[in-house]
Amino acid sequence: MELKIKAQAGSFESSDVLIMVEPQPTGVGRKIELESIVMQQFGDDLLNQIHRDLDALGIDDIRVIINDKGALPPTISARLETALKRSAGLQAGTLT
Amino acid sequence: MKNILQREIPETLEGIGEIEPFQGAFTKLRKGWMEEETVPPPNKAKMPHSSKMCSNLKEAVIRTNPRNGMTVSFHHHLRGGDSILVETIKILAELGIKDITLASSSLTSAHEPILPYLKNGTITQIYSSGIRGEIGEAVAKGVMPKPFVIHSHGGRVRSVHTGKIKIDLTVIAASAADIEGNSTGAHGPSAFGSMGYAVIDARYARQVVVVTDNIVDYPCVPQAVTQNFVDYVVKVDSIGDPSKIAGGTTRITKAPMDLQIARLAAQVIEHSGELKEGFSFQVGAGGASLAVAKYIRKIMKQKVIKGSFILGGVTSYGVDMLNEGLFKSIFDVQSFDAAVSTSLMTNPYHIEITAGLYANPFNCGCMTNKLDIVVLGALEIDTDFNVNVITGSEGYVRGASGGHSDTASGANLTVVVCPSFRGRIPIVKEKVHTIVTPGESIDVLVTERGICVNPNRPELKENLIKGGIAVKEIKDLAAEVEKITGVAKPIQNEERIVGIVEYRDGTVIDVIRQVK
């Protein structure tokens, strides 16, 4: 998947997560900024999950900003996937 | 040392003294009397026709000779609308009084202005049934030098009898009082209903000040607190924010999840074998717990069952059920809305009771012992059914013990209602952060994801299965929840103990450690 533009998915609602993605030049690597209301309990889990999902899609150079209000793992994966698809122009988004 | 629930408890703790570990809900009560000696209440004298009236609260406080190291007590019947606690603490601070022990029957959001006084040595210890919000955060971070004590409503009465809480000054807010201090919360512009928690303070405090915004002609009736215990009376312009003291009626939640849990809980109660003619009933005032009353009301009408009494914190919903003839009476230690005050004032079967009669384990029988069914909430519940209602997911104090352990120990059927997880935080889990009510007192857990019966109640499980209700093992439910949320890392604490949780019999059921 080739990222083209900044994109986002999700919301600030409780039990949801807002994920923003921004393409980065090749070789920059992944910059992940994580904020979560369940940081203590699930911070490491969350970060691992994001890396796993990015691995699966073969995305290495990206900035991801995550603001998590206690979303469950499937919600997080879904929001990330949607943000990435919007960024790649594969899906219409709310922020183009 | 470890108590019977395997919680690590110190043998002594600075600011508390010797600690007796929790040994089981009835181990101490079985003896039939309390081993600790009770302290005598003070005996005072007043000359005939001398005046108790003070021109303002400050004058009254000065006349009580405040001193460093004193204990000052309050009731929390004004809920989120109270201004008297904060005003009194401000006056004491202005007078330069330090090292105060604050013994309020509970603390609410209205009390947050006392925060600076916790940090500057004015208040150095708290006894309360509940602490929330910014105060709960501050005390968990360890701003006070001495550990705070969380007690139940019944346990507080015991602590006053034994002198563990030795009240030097109590300031009692009333919505109506006369010049001798006969006072009530049942009428007046700021009516708040029952004054049940204040009565023990009036009996035992060295100095008793009644504060009201409404002086009525002598004698004030009904009398929740009587003049023979009152030293001074103050008329003030306001005892707080009337809209928050006596706000309208309590509404049943519209949250679909809470309603679903309540519906399931009502089915459990219906088939438990306890919902029968003459049963007694208590529900909490919020969320799923109160919503259970809505479904029970329906079932009672359908099956033509009449109950004996409603107990506890009373909402207008309970009053409606009394007025419909579904229950014979209400015994009211604490009222939650304006409609309740009116009923308390006018209906002879709506009776104000003291905290001692409500829940003190050490007397010849508190009313929680007569409860058939109680429905309670939980912040967390573990696979041994132990319940946390005091610390939140970050380890801060954000709840209240209240009557939770009192009613749970007394009732024939104790139902806990809560979601199986909130946000991503598991509620049903292997180990709760803080135990307030021991699992032995909990009979059944109702969540949106499953109903679990305590293994010590096999006959209840049988009744539910016969009624067509699916039950599952609590360990299976916890595992199911963990699969959904992922495995939560436990909260990191410092070693330092910042608070203790007393069981109703005075033993220590758990401690609260400083949040990192």
TrEMBL record, chain A:
In short, the EC number is 4.1.3.6
Task: Give one Pfam family.
Answer: ACP
Report the top EC class in one word.
lyase
Keyword vocabulary terms for this entry: Cytoplasm, Lyase, Phosphoprotein
Q: Which domain of life is it from?
A: Bacteria
Location in or out of the cell: Cytoplasm
Q: What is this protein called?
A: Citrate lyase acyl carrier protein
Origin species, per record, is: Carboxylicivirga linearis
The encoding gene is: citD
Automatic annotation (TrEMBL), chain B:
Q: Which InterPro entries match?
A: Citrate_lyase_asu, NagB/RpiA_transferase-like
Q: Which GO terms describe its molecular function?
A: citrate (pro-3S)-lyase activity; citrate CoA-transferase activity
Q: Which region is the signal sequence?
A: none
Q: Where in the cell is it found?
A: Cytoplasm
Provide the E.C. number(s) assigned to this enzyme: 2.8.3.10, 4.1.3.6
Q: What keyword terms does UniProt attach to this protein? A: Cytoplasm, Lyase, Transferase
* Reactions performed catalytically: citrate + acetyl-CoA = (3S)-citryl-CoA + acetate; citrate = oxaloacetate + acetate
Q: What is its main location?
A: cytoplasm
The UniProt entry, under Pfam families, shows: CitF
Q: Which NCBIfam families match?
A: citF
What is the protein's given name? Citrate lyase alpha chain
Gene symbol? citF
